[in-house]
Give the backbone structure.
Amino acid sequence: MAKYGTDILNHFDLPREITSIQGTFRYRFYSPIEQVDEDNLVGKGENPDPRYVTLSWKGEDSIVDPVGFKDLLVHRENFFFPSDLNTGFAIFSTDEKEVVQRQTAVLSDNTSTGSKLDYLLTTVASNEFTEKLESSISSDKSIRIPVIDPTTNRPVQSTSVYENTEEPPDLFIRSANIKSVLDSSNISPLSLSAYKSYEQTADVISKEDISKINAAPRNGKRLLCTLSYALERLAHMDDSDTDRPAALISLTRRDPQFLSNWSLIGYCISKYRVDNQTNSYMYTRVVFVRNFRDPHVAYGKKYKYEIRPIYAKYAHEHSDQIIILGSDESANIVVDCQELKVPSPPKNLKFEYVLNNNINIRWERPISYVDDENQRWDTNDIKGYQIFLRNSLHEPYRLYKYFTFNNTYPRSAVMYSNELIADEYIITSEFDFPDSIDFNEIPNFYEYKEYTVEIRPNTDYYFAMCSIDAHGNSSNYSSQYKVRRDNVTGQVDIQSVCPEGAPKQYPNLLIPGKLVQPSFKSSGYKYLDVYFNPDTQLSAPNLGEPALNIQMYELETQIEKNITVTVKEKETE
């Protein structure tokens, strides 16, 4: 069979053309209505989009620029799918899939042990990749880690499309005749009543179509319809989606080769909301490139995108009318709009003795940045803090207090820390507000930035804090401090134990010892040279993106400063 089928429309079989799709959810910053804002109210006008889905795909054909008519496409007026032109016909399909699609995470070509360890330490929940890595992180070089979206810390998704050469073509049968065709097929000794189960459905289809045409005889009209006949029928359909009759676009040829054969001019993208395995259609867009950016997504929702190629050609060599058809076959990808990127921990913890064995703890709100489209965005999604303490480095931390101030709308959608926390540990400034509230009047709750803790004298206390974002993600530990009050002298000893960044499951990871080199102290210097000297040729910093973080402390005031180093590509002379 020819690649593009025949010009008899109800036997027309456009190629699906798409070989792979890659998609990811990008999260920039928080808004209280993000879980219901599919209209992107926050990003209206000149305001930046707070989040979006980006898609890109690969295909087999070159795209021809539809100059002169790309803005004129109207479905069922001058742009059709083969199914639009097959009215009056039933399609008998086999169970074999014509195309096999498989969606999975995009895998990185970085196989270094350091990259795998970094992935393990920054991944919130276990998955198929972490389980493989934990068992053989350095011994098995074939294990690869997924490519992570930097704004969400989730794997970038990819759909691969494979042809099934064993799949037989669909059969087009006039609906009024489908019952008699199947009855005759069942009588044949070669089929052995293979179509018996379809008889009842075929009978219903045939009766419905016969009633529409008032049982008029065929009068010798051939079974297959031509383009002009299909358009004439479509123009007189009562349920047409357009007020105007079907009419092809007329365009003077710019050169003899332009659209002389079926040419790819773009793609049709249909979007569905996926809820409990149910797909709800939302809208369709036509694009003339192999990428698509969709800012109309709500946080926490899942969306399916079906992509179909669109082809065009002149009706014949002596006509200036253009036939534009989209493929009924599609490739698709499902994108989950959630983020797992952990926020930054609280900054600049300060401890002050306030008599009666009480220590006042103060902290500063961290700034959690993400880089997207050559710009740095403050996610501004911190909605809680946790204070942890322990009395020895050999003990795990225990939660002391959890402060919440999450103003997410609606209130039923608020997400808190993933741990199960008893009410006695929670201090909140939140209050309920109605779902009918104007979006511009959603309150900002008071944000806690200090708390007083009672301690026992002559006892070691180790303190650390974590930030909780609007989606329940927890930061790593802040800088850890040891506090001890001498009951005899009355002096309070405050020491910095380690810098920020230790995961909750490994609180001692950054404490000087066997795992890491101890930090060094220096004074009187203004400049610092940093050398990149990896122990493998398979590792390289991300050019043009943050690649290294240096944390500096002023020991007397406990003020800390994070310096992010971006590696630039070497300029050639």
Observations:
- The longest strand covers residues 263-275.
